Amino acid sequence: MNDPFESYNARFVAPQTVAETFILRHKQFASLCEQTNSLLIGPRGSGKTTLLKMLKVGAQVVAWKSRTQANALRRFRFCPIYVGADRQLEFVVGNPAAEENRASISLLSKALLSFRVKFACLDTAKEISNPALRDIENLSHQFVDLGNNEAKLCKALSSVWDLGDQTLSFLEVRLRLYWQLAEMNRFLDRIKHGLNVSPREILDRAQYLSHDPIRSCESFVALFNEILDQPTKIWALCVDELEIMPDDLQNYLFSGFRSIDHRMVLKLATSPFSKIDWRGLGKDRPMAGNDYTTINLGFTTKHDTRKNDARRFSARLLEALIAAEGHIKKRDSRPLGSYVLGRSPITEANTSPDQKDAYRPPEGIHYVRFKALYERDLAFKQFIRDRSIDIDQMHLGGENKRAGNARKYIWQVACRLAYAPLSAFTRPDQSLGERPPSRKALAEVYLGYDSLLTMCEGNPRITISLMRPLVKRYFGTSKSISFEEQSTLVEESIKKYVSLLSTIRVVDPKNQIQNMSIIDLIQSIGSFFSDEVVGPVFKPEPPLTFRIDNAVPKEYVDAIGAAMNQGAFVMLSDESGLFDHGSIKDARLRFSYLLCPLYHLPLAIGGQTNLSRILSTRRPRTTRRSLTQDDLFSRVGP
Amino acid sequence: MNERLVVRNLSVPFEKMGNSAFIYCIGYETRSRFIAQEYKWWPEKTIAIEYSIGQVLSFEANQEFARQSGFKIVSDQHTLIEAAIRQTIASQRESEGTANITIDVSSMDRSLMSRVLLNVLDKLDDGETMFVLYSPSAFAERKTNLVPITNSGAAHPRLAGQVSPPDSGRVALLGLGYEYGVSLSILEAHEPDISFIFRPNGFDDRFRQAVRDANFGFDFGERNYEIIDYFLEDMAGAYDDISSLVLSTKHNSTIIAVPMGPKILSAVMILAGRLHQPQLSVLRYSVAPGGSYQDVLPEGLAVGISVTVIRDREVSAIHRIMSGQRSTL
What we know:
The complex is a heterodimer.
Chain A: H1 15-20, H2 26-33, E1 38-41, H3 48-54, H4 57-63, H5 67-75, E2 79-83, H6 88-93, H7 102-128, H8 149-160, H9 170-192, H10 199-205, H11 213-227, E3 235-239, H12 247-259, E4 264-270, E5 293-296, H13 307-325, H14 337-341, H15 365-376, H16 378-386, H17 399-405, H18 410-419, E6 423-426, E7 432-435, H19 448-456, H20 460-477, H21 483-502, E8 505-506, E9 516-517, H22 518-534, E10 543-547, H23 554-565, E11 569-573, E12 588-591, H24 596-599, E13 607-610, H25 611-616
Parallel strand pairs in A: 1-4, 1-5, 2-3, 3-4, 10-13
Antiparallel strand pairs in A: 6-7, 8-9, 10-12, 11-12
Helix pairs in contact in A: 7-9, 7-11, 8-11, 13-19, 13-20, 15-16, 15-18, 19-20, 20-21
Chain B: E1 3-10, E2 21-26, H1 34-38, E3 46-50, H2 59-69, E4 72-75, H3 80-96, E5 100-104, H4 110-123, E6 129-134, E7 149-154, E8 169-175, H5 182-190, E9 194-201, H6 205-214, E10 225-231, H7 235-249, E11 253-259, H8 263-275, E12 280-287, E13 303-311, H9 315-328
Parallel strand pairs in B: 2-3, 2-5, 3-4, 5-6, 8-9, 8-11, 9-10, 11-12
Antiparallel strand pairs in B: 1-13, 6-13, 7-12
Helix pairs in contact in B: 3-4, 4-8, 7-8
């Protein structure tokens, strides 16, 4: 792969390539490097796979060259075994006829995971026995000289992994595993053609298909440590993408946090929402903090205090994109992001030198905006009067006073100025009305370096897909990209994102609507928030978050959870306060900032309301038109 | 068994298929009867497959046409189609000495199409030919609703592929349709190492624009993909392209084929899928109709391919057949 950012999914990318493009999230990686069980949680594209793959010795060989990186390497001494997942089985046996073979399919899906674990064990053994490791500082401790022990180990594996014939090399073990996989495919063939295959029949003919994934790994570890005389060697079984595995496998792996061999730690990666009822495991349920450490790759907490962390991470990724696109060597580079994109009209506190002057009359950028809205928006004028705020005096006093009087309304003011119905007109009956400004393009408040970084949410995939076209445009012209051009490219990215979300199906709880998309729900929530922001009353802290209260039907909860796994919603707090994965009942969510321009919403947290309240204000489907492609960026509202 | 399929383009008029048996379906689109109506088929050699769901819009008119034409109407229920095909091929061999079957895939969904094509191919003997016809739709403004994917899976159990070792690569062959965002969603779900995206070129440029609009100007973001143009008049060329890609990648990859867009591409991918089992999985994605069913009118022409089955023969024999076909078309 010539371009390190060519693919933004690390699943099928070689660890070495992942390492070349890796932007380290120090705190999370440090936590992952602890010799404890870990649960890595994050929506799609948040970097779970990248982080897990970076543990692999093969990745470390390539990229960990700086002092910081070397320090990170020294942090862990366990030996990582990386296991990926995919959806192949789902397509092979995912037809209705296969329903009758549910027990057998469940057995085979577990067997398939066992195969993946065994292959991963072999990959790891090969990596750590690579003689090149011996000479790499900070990595030499991972090297294991197999000497003449490969044959001994393989012989032993032949027995514990039921390989049939005796094997004497890793290659032979691999070949036997291929053969066993082919045998498994024979059973799958029968199932997909509608034949009944009982678990007993499978096990009578292929005992190895009953192997337990974690036990298969444990047996490898036990043999390796014994034969190589390294009784204290610790291994990490790293299993990625739990969310695309069947529920029973997720449950099984999660339970492993409680029962894994003392020579191993378990590191699992998954999306934040799961339909599985973990409470069903009762008191045997592994507990966050005791049995495992939760590492949440979302940057959000209750008060959004980590918003700046997310921005900083996206900024680093942006600089890396610029360097890659411009073939700029790292040592020559100085930050270019803010030059390429220009600063946004609204910047985070203390991130721009001219912020204080922004409130100063007559030309301060915020002053101008407050003043303009004050003159055009009666609701805002009333609000300012009620609060006895003097717009001409906003620049005076300290940051605290400014924060109280102005800063917290900046986004509100900007959104109303851009989208609220401020143009008065006279109706035929002589009554007065107001119409919103005609606007198809994105308002400037969403554009520029600061806002775009906020919209990236610290999510590598969103950052790359949003920023990459902009960076390419920059190197095409070598000029800062105008807001107009940014608007076009950002809209395109948002449209793609919405189209992806739209394919998520919602089961209508009343069974009246056959083909309901998550977009229906997003549209309802977005329109509700939009009314709160640009409606007839100026609300200083409009609700921009919602709580999944008990009155929300399960079908909607599931669909919102699925959308959250895709990054459409961000969890601000959950029932446990641990940002654990599982149910989102009672959780407080906000829209992804990437969706906010679609509904003209501030890139801020705002107040909270219950989702059931939002849904109760929806018009019935018969009078609602579902969102179309043409509606994106042309109108808001149902 | 050593089997090959010799796939050639057909050109109108289709007189060479004169004695062929004909299979098509009675769907809800007006288009579904176009080829049955336009060309001369023997009523006793024609099977009209009747959908048991979606009996809306033009379905009744299509059903009436089939009845009046004296076609044999067969339900799409399990085994009935298979039995009708078996019977038709047998009686054709009896009367003609050889079996040639023509299938109009224009209004068949991917599952039904797989059933029919696989069944016919299984029953054809060496040297017998299956003709696959397709009637492009007349352009109509498409619905642009953002719709969910309601179903996905193998188009047919026999085209489901297999589970492969974790070190296999992943290749996608994706046909573009004009359902907004669906192609992107498919790429997102499967995350192939490389995707070959098949872009349709038909007879009406408005389609091209509609496909472009639904697929973000053919910009699929930060992915490793290549766009391959195919032409409805040259589906044999598309078959060759697909076969070449499958042959060159199947040794170290699992391949998924997702034929969105014109049904004739689905037919071609099903043919390739049959030949390259178990390395190639042919998948279908069902998208919820944008609010309601939409009638589709025919453009007024037909395109197609001939598929000759070659079994247990030497390469020289295949050359002879191919040169023979060239002279008759």
